[in-house]
Amino acid sequence: MYTALAYKEWLKLRRVFWVPLIVVLGALASIFISFRHVNEIIGPTMLWIDVAVADKIFYNDLRYVPVFAAMWFALFQFIPECSGKRLRLLFHLPVPRRRALYFMVGIGLACTGVVCVIGAIGLALIVGHYMPFQAVRCVVFTCAPWFMAGFPAYLGTVLVIMDPAWPHKFMHGFVSILFVQELISSASQGAFEYSLIYYALACLLWILPIEVSAYRFKQGVSW
Questions:
Q1: What is the pLDDT of residues 48-84, one digit of tens each?
Q2: What are the CA-CA distances from residue 187 to residues 47, 150, 151, 190 (Å)?
Q3: What are the transmembrane regions (predicted)?
C-alpha cells in the first residue's frame, strides 16, 4: 500500500519536481559568478575583506529558495487532494490514517530536503574554492536557518490548504509567515549560530496540528 501511495505522490510531482532544482542550480550559478567576479576582477584581498570584515553576504540568491521549494511541493501535493475532498479517500485505505498522512508529508519534506542539500553542498563547494574552511563553516551556519525555514513553510502551506475553516487557515498562515520571516531575515553572517538548536526544536511544533487539521477535514467542520 505504501508503494501505491509513493507512486501517487510521484504522479503529482514528477512534472514539477525539476522546477525547484532548476531554481537552486540557478541561484548557485549566480553565487559562483558573484564570488568569481569579486575574486578575479577586484581581487582576493577585497573578497576576504568583504566577507570577514564588512560582513557582506554574497549568497543572498539562496535565501528564499528553500521556502519556495517547500511551498511548491506542498501546493502540488495537497491542492489536488483537497479539491473535491479527495483527501477523505486516504482515511478509508487499509493502512492507519496517521501513517498514510505522515507518509505523504514525509515525501514532500524529503523533496524539500533534497533541494536544501544540493544548495548547501553547492554553496560550500563554491565558498571553499575561494576561501578557507573557517569561511565555509560561517556560511553554513548563516544559511542553516534559511534551509530550516523550508520545514515550517512546507507544513504551514499544508495546514492552510488542508484545514477546512478559513479562521484556522488564516491562523496557520499568519503564524507560519511570522516564524519563516524570522528565520530568513538575518542580515549578518552566523546570526543564528548559538540559537539554531532552539529554532530547530520550534520547527517541530508544526507537526502537531497536521493530524488535527486532517481530522477536521475528514469531519468537514466549518469553524
A1: 777 777 777 778 889 999 999 999 999 999 998 888 7
A2: 18, 18, 21, 9
A3: 16-35, 100-127, 139-161, 197-217
Which residues, including other chains, have CB under 8 Å from residue 211's CB and lie 6 or more apart?
Answer: 98, 101
Residue 3 has pLDDT above 90, yes or no: no
97 CB-side CA count, 13 A: 14
Task: Give me the amino acid identity at 4.
Answer: A
Q: How far apart are the first and last CA of the chain?
A: 33
Side-chain-side CA neighbours of 35 within 13 Å: the count stands at: 23
Residue 117's nearest CA partner among 147, 138, 160 is 147
Separate counts of helices (H) and strands (E) for the chain: 10, 0
**Residue type at position 167:** P
This prediction's pTM = 0.89
Sort 114 into a burial class: Cβ within 10 Å, 0-12 / 13-18 / 19+: middle
